[in-house]
Amino acid sequence: MNSDTRTRTGLGHDAVGTFGGQSLRLPLAIAGVLIVFALGTVMPTRFASDFVLRLGNEGLLLGMLALSVAFLMSQAGLVALGAASMYGGAGFLFAIAMGEWNLTPLSALCAAFLILVVYAAILGALIVRTNPLAFMMLTLAAGEMIGHGVMLEGLRDYTGGADGLVVNFKGAVLGMDAADFASPGRFWPVAWTAAWLAGLALWAVGRSRLGAILRAVRENEERMRFSGFDTYLPRLIGYVLVNVVAAVAGLLHVLNAGFVSPESLGLSISTNALVAALIGGIAGPAAPIMGGLIFSFAQDEFGARGLTQLLTGVAIVLFIVMFPRGVVGGLSSAARRLAQAMGGRREKS
Amino acid sequence: MIALLIANSLALASLLIMLASGLALIYGLRDVINFGHGAIYMLGAYLGYTVALVGGFWLALVVVPILLALVGIAFEYLALRPLQNRSHIEVALVTLGLGIVLGQIIIFFYGGVARSVDAPPILSGSVMILNLTYPVYRIFLIVMGLGSCAILALWLGFTSSGLYVRAVSQDPSVARMMGINADRLSLLVTSLSTAFAGVAGVLAGPYLSVDPGMDAAMIVNCLIIVVIGGTGSIGGAIVAALLFGLVQVAGSVFLPSIAALVPYALLMVVLLIAPRGIGRGRVLN
Q: Which of A185, A300, B98, B251 is the most core-located residue (most Cβ within 10 A)?
């Protein structure tokens, strides 16, 4: 919502104005944020059971996926249904880098991360130039491609086929070994910090010139192109950025779980991330992460796997139908203006 | 060899044409991609399985499309019409959610096991054509696929309702100004689209298997076809479906180890050289 009104006032004003207004409240805000962060790092590990922490960890990682989906939705007006290929792909690459290539944990993480970023950049270069609806279809197709690719007979030795892979984790990353990552209590601060960093990073990008350009392109791509802006590169950078967040979530997940299965590449992971983003709301960095936590605990509550999928579908419909302005308001007005722009162009031709 | 390959790809393309042209039709009128189309196809296949058990394959081929046309009418009244002022992305997401719900309901009733449907006696077995033995059922599939293409082309090209559909697809606002009732057309097109999905579902029974994963597999194929064909272009979708069938079948013959990835490779190549697809889709013009 907020971003909407800001973009309408103009690009330059947006970039300058918001920072000036905030400087007075800044120290208080920073102090408040730091206190919440510190309490959130310590308190759950003291008071919550391992079971609750495990759900919380899953929720934070799903929240990071939701954050990546939500950022692209709110800033660029694009819906990505391919979060799973980053999430599961990170797991597979890390497991393969450890097991097959005999890398140290840190270099395995870096290798997996680099491959994912290159993949996201190549895929993004192909698909961000299409219209939002085609983009949505293409991310879905690309996600399924990776899912099928892992199951290929010829890659069975690498990927373990339907069985997935157990990570052969020796050594330590940042002073944590396999047992540390597997422990819910010791993993929580890592996931918590990562979620915060991801949230802050994307929030900062949203406030930057890049964010302003992305929103302006979302509102009216043609106008931006006529005004002399490159509309392709910003969207590509935005796409790669959200995939970086998703890849980090995937790497953390494989460190925590210690194994990776083909299900982590499934469409349901992508739709779960979408639902988490819709539950939390797509505006701002905190809401999608909250959505991830809510989803994780709700999923536990509704137990059986079949029911989870059913409720995922119901949630998508409910949240979009019931909260038209609140949840995807920015998206809605963007598309309407896009439609108007299209209509106008058609009449001229 | 080559003739066999072409025949097999035509048989596969027949199913894809029925589904992808249904998607393109709805898109033309409503600007909405129905992500739940795979689930509707799956509903057609499972209903076809049930009706075929009770009254045989031919009854299923008649009854199921009628039932699914009713589903299409419900879909139009309960989802598309109330949401027609919402952004197309939101409506697409709603259809995705509805598709997941429908798929889960089907799995709830039929369980997670694959079912098989037998072709009727007259269509089982093989015939000799040009020194090749070929399954009769696949010939039947090809006839049905090409037949539905022809009917679609005749309807769009030579009837007034077809003309209206083309007009709205080309320019909704001008078409409305000229007094075309887009809502009534949309009802027709949506029920036609789901009925076609029902035909495809029943036909898929004896050809592919009827299993819980068929909706996701098929919707992904259809989305690839719609993108390759140029979003919303029916002619493009038909050409893309033929191309897709050929590539898929050729892939499984010549590159069996990576056959599953060949359609995606086709998609990437098309995106690279013609990001708007091969047809002339409206929104991408």
A: B98
